[in-house]
Amino acid sequence: MSLKGKAAIVTGSTSGIGQGIAEALAAAGADVMLNGFGDADAVERQRAGLERDHGVKAVFSAADMSKPDQIKAMVADAEAAFGKVDILVNNAGIQTVAAVEEFPDDRWELIQAINLSSNFYAIKAAMPGMKARNWGRIVNIASAHGLVASPYKVAYVAAKHGVVGLTKVVALETAQMNITCNAICPGFVKTPLVEGQIGEQARANDMTEEQVVRDVILASQPSKRFVGIDELGALTVFLCGDQASSITGTSLSVDGGWTAR
Ligand code: NAD
């Protein structure tokens, strides 16, 4: 599957799933704009590594996905660097685990901003160029929690359900323009985000981290294993290819059977 000549933005790609998706898109030949927080040297090694290993152009934007003006500037910077944005992967996300009545107001607001509103602002900014070129691929990294709920994740579950709804509307508005918009709904993937959550849940429930992984995390997934980052990269590359041009408005579960229950 070649994406040679295409230009992509992957938000939240300095770690975890986004890093893997950026790598997969570059391996398929796409130029990539990385984004996210992280140690400057590590980010530069990652950026230079994509160029060295895959012969693509790679740039980095430090835009904060909770800030609409910075999101707009990120898209403009990508258009300046590549001449266009063909592929937008909205991946940046954060998580907080707490009961509804104890859930901090500021975390609710921040989770909506990063996990949901950033998708809207980035799509809004990239859409005029995609429409003008009559080609676009938007992949929103939602979650199994965009389809089903778990306790203590009120802000995350609400935001990810919002991403699934936003995905459908964008797909309907662009269905005749050779632009697709889909959500990927992963189950548990072993990334820094989930490792933090394992620690939080272990402390809150007086369990060991091994018990949380076995009895809480993997208990949700009939496959009894974490989803691989490479599996999400491969699906994203497929969704960005021409063979996936009729797949739009869907939410693709990659969750080891979790949401089939
Ligand atoms: P991660 O913590 O490893 O990576 C998150 C990335 O987002 C990092 O690059 C971080 O710098 C970036 N980021 C955070 N806040 C940002 C901000 N304000 N502006 C710009 N970048 C920001 O997490 P992950 O597990 O790789 O999660 C990636 C996405 O996948 C998230 O949307 C998450 O909700 C979703 N997801 C993860 C899992 C899982 O099990 N790990 C499951 C389903 C969905």
Automatic annotation (TrEMBL):
GO terms under biological process: monocarboxylic acid metabolic process
Lineage per the UniProt record: Bacteria, Pseudomonadati, Pseudomonadota, Alphaproteobacteria, Rhodospirillales
One function term, GO molecular function aspect: 3-hydroxybutyrate dehydrogenase activity
Organism: Thalassobaculum fulvum
Family: Belongs to the short-chain dehydrogenases/reductases (SDR) family.
InterPro entries referenced in this protein's UniProt entry, alphabetically: 3-OHbutyrate_DH, NAD(P)-bd_dom_sf, Sc_DH/Rdtase_CS, SDR, SDR_fam
Gene3D superfamilies in UniProt: NAD(P)-binding Rossmann-like Domain
The protein's name in its UniProt record: 3-hydroxybutyrate dehydrogenase
NCBIfam families: PHB_DH, PRK12429.1
